[in-house]
Amino acid sequence: MLNEVEKTLTAARELTTALETERVLKALPLVPMPIWGTAQRVEEMFGIPKTSLRRLVNEGYVRCRKLFAEKQSRSVFRIADIEEYLEA
Questions:
Q1: pLDDT per residue over 7-59, tens digit each?
Q2: What pLDDT score was predicted for residue 12?
Q3: Are residues 55 and 40 in the same domain?
Q4: Bridging pattern class, strands 75-78 and 36-38
């Protein structure tokens, strides 16, 4: 009997925690994630330094392109690729 009460209390606590988490997540503002970001922005968002980011591009994990057609243009990196790499 005591074991069943403990199970019920545990289930109630888990449900309360889940509901509280859902309430907090709904209250947070939704911030859209950019599609492309400069190396500086990637470092700010994810903490990945430029050298490591370049290595990820060379290994084919992250896509990179020039912001403009000029040779001296900055490179931008695909944010979704970085998120995918970090989740793996």
A1: 777 777 777 777 787 777 777 777 788 899 999 999 999 999 999 999 999 99
A2: 72
A3: yes
A4: antiparallel
| 48: containing domain | 36-87
- How many other C-beta atoms can be found within 10 angstroms of the C-beta atom of residue 43? 15
Task: Give CA–CA dist 39/46, Å, rounded.
Answer: 10
**Shared-domain flag, residues 74 and 40:** yes
Same domain, 70 and 43: yes
**Range scoring the smallest mean pLDDT among 15-19, 38-42, 71-75, 83-87:** 15-19
The rounded distance, in Å, linking the Cα atoms of 34 and 31 is: 9
Question: Is the sign of the CA dihedral 41, 45, 49, 53 positive or negative?
Answer: negative
Q: What is the pLDDT of residue 66?
A: 92
Q: How far apart are CA 1 and CA 10, in angstroms?
A: 14
